[in-house]
Amino acid sequence: MAEYREIITKAVVAKGRKFTKANYTISPPHHPSSILGCWIINHKYEARKVGKKEVEVSGSFDMNVWYSHHDNTKTSVATERVDYRDILKLHYKDPDCMDDRQVLANVLQQPNCVEAVISKKGNKILVTTEREFQVDVIGETKVCVEVHYDKCSDDDDYDLHEELSDSELEDINTEFLTADEEKD
Q1: How far apart are CA 43 and CA 13, in angstroms?
Q2: HSE (CB half, 13 Å, CA atoms) of 69?
Q3: What is the number of other CB atoms lying within 10 angstroms of the CB of residue 58?
Q4: Distances in whole angstroms, Cα of residue 54 to Cα of each of 50, 63, 155
Q5: Cβ distance 135 to 15 under 8 Å?
Q6: Read out DSSP for 43-87?
Q7: For the chain, percent helix, then strand, then coil, each to nearest 5?
Q8: Do residues 74 and 36 lie in contact, with contact meaning Cβ atoms separated by under 8 Å?
Q9: DSSP per residue over 22-44, as a string?
């Protein structure tokens, strides 16, 4: 008959993933003639658990659109700060979880510009972006393990207290630090 132990440990107790495609409008100071480029920088985000089955990822990024104006004779960059909030539904919820407040969010795809076009009226720039997140909720949970006393012994194949032989001590390079590293 086997003996069992319950171990309390931290583990991934829930997961979520979401792909978001979003549209934004930029109103530049000049009527754009053509779009020359669009890029997204300064992405920042944080995640927190909301309710029992969702995680909120909130963040921001700067959207920069390089465009020409005055009949393609001048160029400018229009910058827009974008704030967003994505709700990710959680899948696989551990029923034995005791504490699940720690959330790890990973960006699978940084926010990027898919398309930037001039609006039909010609006074705004319409930008389509996409981003993707994956979240892991970490919590304390209980696992049950079977104990095998006969599988463990004090006569392991190695000795943790084994001493080095004289020839092994001679092989140790005591001058492994360079002169520059010794100054630090």
Answers
A1: 27
A2: 18
A3: 14
A4: 5, 28, 50
A5: yes
A6: EEEEEEEETTTEEEEEEEEEEEEEEEETTTTEEEEEEEEEEEEEE
A7: 5, 65, 30
A8: no
A9: EEEEE--SS-EEEEEEEEEEEEE
DSSP state of 149: G
pLDDT digits (tens, 9 = 90+) for 6-43: 888 888 889 999 999 999 999 999 999 999 999 999 99
Largest CA distance in the chain: 86
Asked if residue 151 has pLDDT above 80, the reply is no
CA–CA separation, 78 and 25 (whole Å): 11
How does pLDDT run across 112-147, given as a tens digit for each residue?
Answer: 999 999 999 989 999 999 999 999 999 888 888 888
The pLDDT, as a whole number, for residue 161 is: 60
Give the pair of three-digit tokens for residue 129. Answer: 């972006």
Structure token digits, residue 34 = 């053509």
Structure tokens at 117: 């076009």
CA angle 125, 130, 132 (to 5 degrees): 160
- Among 99, 82, 92, residue whose Cα is nearest residue 40: 82
